[in-house]
Amino acid sequence: MSFVDLSHSFEDEMPGFRMEAEDGTVTEYTAEIEPFFTHDESESFYDGESAFEITEIRFQTSIGTYLDSPYHRYPSGRDIGDPDIDELVLPGVVVDARGLESYEELGVEVLPTDRELTNRAVLFNFGWDEHWDTEQYRSYPYISDALIDRLVDENVGLVGVDTINVDDHRNPSRPAHTRFLDEEIFIVENMTGLDALHGESFRLFAVPIKASQTAAMPIRAFAEFD
């Protein structure tokens, strides 16, 4: 049995997302990681006989390699703590989508015709993780409306991408989030290392902490090879 890590490192001032206000002001979001108290600061609590660090992290939940729940799109949808484990540990299928350019859409012809997709984690390897932490990462290829429809029809369990967004961020209707999360098809964004999955039989683990009233959450995504 072997494993492949499919997650970016969660770090202080890591790449995050941007939001643009009506006046054109752009705000960058990231993670902030620092000691809540250090080993040195804690010694006095334990009479100098031991010491511990407790770490404080502040972040928006749609950062890093993360899972979107239906609540992310729909106020009445299930939140990130609601799914059962077996909904987030799924047999996987990797789709080779490498070679596309920025803002190029991916069609249905890439889906394998010899693989079962029902209740599978379908992961799209655009090869875009090589642009992580660069400006190029923010202008990425994405899946087409026709491909979204096909994945819904196939009743997949989860869709993952190695880009910052499964949707074209220029499209405010967000068709992939809208369709997938309405059908309770979970979404994982900002994956990495998908090259290692080609030609392999694997299970995807995409389990977040059990957080209530939470729309999304970073995960330690990984694949287990049979």
Automatic annotation (TrEMBL):
Protein name: Cyclase family protein
Keywords for this protein: Hydrolase
Keyword Repeat attributed: no
GO MF, one annotated term: hydrolase activity
Top-rank taxon: Archaea
Alphabetical list of PANTHER family matching this protein: CYCLASE-LIKE PROTEIN 2, KYNURENINE FORMAMIDASE
Gene3D superfamilies in the cross-refs: Putative cyclase
TM region positions: none
Keyword Nucleus found: no
EC number: 3.5.-.-
EC primary class: hydrolase
Phylogenetic lineage: Archaea, Methanobacteriati, Methanobacteriota, Stenosarchaea group, Halobacteria
Native source species: Haloferax chudinovii
